[in-house]
Amino acid sequence: MAWPSQLPLLDAPPLSEEQLRSKPCVLVFFSIDCPYCRRHNQRLNKLAAQYGDRIRVIGAATDTDLNALRHYRDSQGLSFALSAGSQALRARVTPRKVIPFTAVIAADGSFKERIPGEMTEEDIMGLVRWAPKGEYR
Asked: What is this structure's pTM?
């Protein structure tokens, strides 16, 4: 996948393409109004907390209201990076409109998985299999 030259993040400096390629990434497209996404993101939060040193987790919200996205992040206790207005990024990943939609992208930019819909906690925690053991930046 061709990452954008920079991925803007909510309340954090944008990630450069080099940073995005520094380790595998679990990228999820979601909406703050979606109850399935809410459960899915809680499970991703566990993945990020436990394996964030090995795999990057990014939530790409379809929503564009930054204050609403901040409220969602804070009320849900999410600790992984969020980006708003993900339509252009989504077009690079899939034409499908289903949410949540999860993609696992290797450090070299290749897709390992593209998963439509809500995943179980076991399935989400299993995504770490795509992150080799070792040190990352």
From this structure: 0.93
